[in-house]
Design goal:
mainly alpha; 434 Repressor (Amino-terminal Domain); 70% helix; Lambda_DNA-bd_dom_sf
Length: 128
């Protein structure tokens, strides 16, 4: 069983939640969470699912992304260390204006780069 599956089950149990309660909190199906916890989720869990589970449990989203193997290999080492995760969180909380920032943010979050950039541009235009 994967480190992510073990951690998810442990965190859920420590929170005093059943799988059904976690399903309600995360808006993920009971059966899919059960598959994840048993290590039978198939080809992998999407970053969006990992994030939803972490948020529902109040856990470290970056650590969950690291444990679930959805982070690209070059970035795995960066997220393996708690201090590095704090640094990445601080970076993601800032909005510097240099070329490639949106791409880095999307890669770290495991999201589609193009939709991340277009969503940010839409938000900027709606605020202006």
């Amino acid at each position: 069983m994967s480190a992510f599956a073990n951690r998810l089950r442990t965190d859920r149990e420590n929170a005093g939640l059943t799988v059904r309660q976690l399903a309600d909190l995360s808006d993920i199906s009971f059966s899919y969470i059960t598959k994840i916890e048993k290590g039978r989720a198939g080809s992998g869990v999407s970053p969006e699912i990992v994030s939803a589970l972490a948020n529902a449990l109040g856990c470290d989203e970056l650590e969950y992304l690291h444990l679930s193997d959805v982070v690209p290999a070059p970035l795995k080492g960066l997220l393996a260390d708690a201090r590095s995760r704090s640094f990445v969180r601080a970076l993601l909380g800032t909005r510097p204006k240099f070329a490639g920032w949106e791409r880095l943010e999307a890669v770290l979050a495991g999201t589609d780069v193009e939709s991340s950039v277009s969503n940010r541009k839409s938000r900027r235009q709606s605020v202006a």
